[in-house]
Amino acid sequence: MQTANPYRAPTARVADAPSDEVGRINVLSIKGRIGRVRYIGYTVGVVLLCNFGGGLVSALAGPKIGAAIFLAAMIAPIVLTTMLTVQRAHDFNATGWLAIIGFIPLVNFVFWLVPGTDGENRFGPKTPPNSKLAVILASAIPAVMIVGIIAAIAIPAYQKYQRPDSSGESANFERVRTSE
Known about the structure:
The chain is mainly alpha-helical. The chain has helices spanning 36-61, 63-91, 110-113, 132-162, 171-179.
């Protein structure tokens, strides 16, 4: 007769079964998770909304009150994007303290690139699926940034190329004539 070994490792499955539950998005909290697409869209939206709205209200309020409103409008996006960055770090199962690297220029793009954890992790259930509009808007943001950088380089170069000299001809024609 063969007896069971009491020192043998258990063979039963002890991991939790995956759940189909999705978490709620709460922008004004550091708890929970937020996916890449929403993170990109919300951070850009918060910065644009606070800066444009704060600038408009401060311009209408007068110099003294306007300065205080403008200062608050500059601090608000920093606080809100930091909270979103903490949630984004939670999405790839990292501590919220990783959000400190969000203050380092260009290193903060790591939050745009690192994929989130599939399913539930220690910070909550998986993030809800993105809508098609959110995906389109989040895809357009890097394209607008690239076009802006190219325009910032190309427009001054083109203006210098087209700037006429004292005889009324462009600088390009002057260079061609002197090389002959």
